[in-house]
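Allow me, if you will, to draw on your knowledge of protein folds for a short while. The matter concerns a single protein, recorded as an amino acid sequence and a row of backbone structure tokens. Kindly check, if you would, that the fold set down in the tokens agrees with what the sequence suggests. You will find the record immediately after this paragraph.
***
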Amino acid sequence: MILTDLSDLYRYRSLSPAIAEAIDWLSANLEGLDFQPGVTELPHGISVKAERVAMTPRDAAVLEAHRRYIDIHVPLKGDETMGWAPVASLQYTRSPYDEATDAATFGDAAHSLLHVRVGEAAIFFPEDAHAPNIGIGNHHKLCIKIPV
């Protein structure tokens, strides 16, 4: 898991060509973005989901994990708290891994809470379970899905 300021996101381009492509898209498109909920497909199987999301109370948040995708979460309007735990430490499966949705959910509590502010990004790898959208009210965000 990585939490970083958007101005420092370029430092992570070397992790993979697909991550570099997603970061380059974000850098080129974030300023002046006309927020419209929906999905933008990029080359190499990368997708950018623009979401208008209702926040979830901390005690109702559910950890999820993916196997085929890396997620980059970018709040655009309203800060977001996210839970985190290493997948290897989780003991209580809520829903087993589903190939069609590339997700499994867990009933364990998050080990840590991240406060992701507008102007920051959180990157989650397949070994990182995460519980997004913790807070009160609604917010706008991007979730970039990058094939592993």
Notes: The mean pLDDT is 95. The helical segments are 17-29. Residues 23 and 29 are 10 Å apart (CA to CA).
